[in-house]
Amino acid sequence: MPTPVEPVDEEGSVPTPVAHGRDTSGVDAAVRAEPGLIRTRRIRRWNTLVIALPVLAVAVLGWRRRALTDDGTIFLRTVRQILAGNGPVVNIDERIETNTSTLWQWILVVLGAIVPGDLGRIAVYTGLLLTTAGVALALDATRRLYEAGASTRLLPAGALVLLGVPPFWDFATAGLDTGLGTFWLAGCWWLSVRTRAEPGPRERAGHAFWYGLGVLVRPDLALITVVFVAGAWLALRPGVRGALGQSAAAMALPVAYEVFRAGYYGLLVPLPALTKEADESEPGRGLRYLWDFAAPYWLYVPILILVAVFVVVAAKLPGGRHRLIVPLTPVVAGLAFVAYVVRLGGDYMHARMLLPALFLVLAPVMLVPMTRILAVAAGTVAVWAVACVGPWHPAAFHKDDVSLTVNVRDSDIGITDRSNADHTRTWEAAFPALRDAVAQGLAQDHPVLVRLDPGGGPGMLLPLNPVYQGVRVSIPGGFLGVTGQLVPLDQRIVEVWSLANTIGAHLEYPPDWTKRWPGHRKPVDDVWLLATDLDPAVTLPPPGAIGVTPDSLAAARRALGCGDLKELVASTRAPLTARRFLDNLTGAYDRTKLRIPRDPFAAEAKFCR
What we know:
The chain has helices spanning 25-64, 70-83, 102-114, 119-145, 158-164, 166-170, 178-194, 201-212, 214-217, 222-236, 239-265, 271-275, 283-294, 300-315, 322-344, 355-362, 372-389, 408-416, 424-429, 432-442, 480-486, 502-506, 526-533, 550-560, 563-573, 578-593, 600-607; strands at residues 18-19, 22-23, 154-156, 367-369, 448-451, 460-463, 473-477, 492-495. A four-stranded mixed sheet has the order 6-5-7-8. The chain has a two-stranded antiparallel sheet with strand order 1-2. Strands 3-4 form a two-stranded antiparallel ribbon.
């Protein structure tokens, strides 16, 4: 019997088979494709779980260690002043910028206006939310780097290091800008990976705008901005016009705010930047600060393992100019930031300044493809993490070295007697003497300068300088955050560490500055405190004033009324007219460079010549 011949169409192809009027051509293909689809779904579920579990762990650990620090509370007075309609100031009659994170300050303003409840608690929970979201975004970026959504199972590696470092949990909250910084860094990494898709001009401008926000998150993050912008240029090769457009997008908001800052405050940087003297170099102390971070957690163990992992995975990335530029960008940014922190001399807070660098260098290896060798490496890091954070390794929970750094969490627990001091009332209750001193000053029938007793006894009440019109009490405070909570918004704070003190921030370092904690190296000497806040009719220094004589007090007062020093005071206290704004703007550079000799006689000779 002859074999039937299948009909062909006019073009010579075999027509689609039809069974009972139904097209069955795709059935066999679907059957063949089904195992692949099932495998893809399983891989996606696995990778989703690999991302979700570290994110959940960060959220849980951050929640367990949630707390508001005094430094975090510093933000809240300015936020409350803004919400009260007094502007971004600490004292209502003095324009001072004491918050280093402009963006975090204004985020709290928005949240404070729309969310009911304690501002301190809002800051704590928002910081935890941003930290958690930042870790999730960074993990997703690393997943995209390896194009693993459909073909490759991933394992957590660098993410385990974040989970193994207790300071990362502590600063997930704290009321500080650290959570915002984590989220911004994660966004930079995510957008950097996105450059592999060759984004168009508008999207590139959006990337650059995000990178440019770094200086508003924290001024020192400008260094990281530069590295990411440079990495985007190298990866995309946008040409002169494109590079100029991206630069303009990155600089637009920071430059606009800088004009406002210079005109409003009369300076180019926040006061804490002057206090910390970023131009000074102290690499010896900086190296000790780096070791103080690495040693308690054996951090060098996972870092060395992950360096080897990075070499392996980077070598297998797809070709093209993105192959090494993209994963190297955060690593270079992190290492540059480490060098900056070391040169600066570190910080008094254990680990805080190095957390952004750690996050960046871990970014390309947060997750790694599942191969036999990389699985062994990830497993070793997991063993390190368990060994590091377990109760069998108490050294991981850093103890204070008062000559170098402070574990802020341990210190704050000692002050507040609470393991989760996440409310401003907890801090207020921990300073009854300060609360009583404020009440004592407000109860007087004339304006007073309250000199607190270091021993906790009754404060000394002195006549206040009448230049502060409407102010009934002025309180020198060593804990700026809690002082800002206890002193009413319409009363005056004299911050003694110079982080919110115009005269103090411009003072020269004392001779023993290298023996002091970073950020606490410019205490306001009694002679300058009294010269600004004691009634000029009082010519004799009060009992207990250290190193103050009638002649030195008179010299300091004369210096405050002369030349550039008089103009410095006017830039913060004179009414903000259009002319004052322009004078502040044009004189901001010279004013930022101005330094005041600590010796009042030398200051008088310098400014009154």
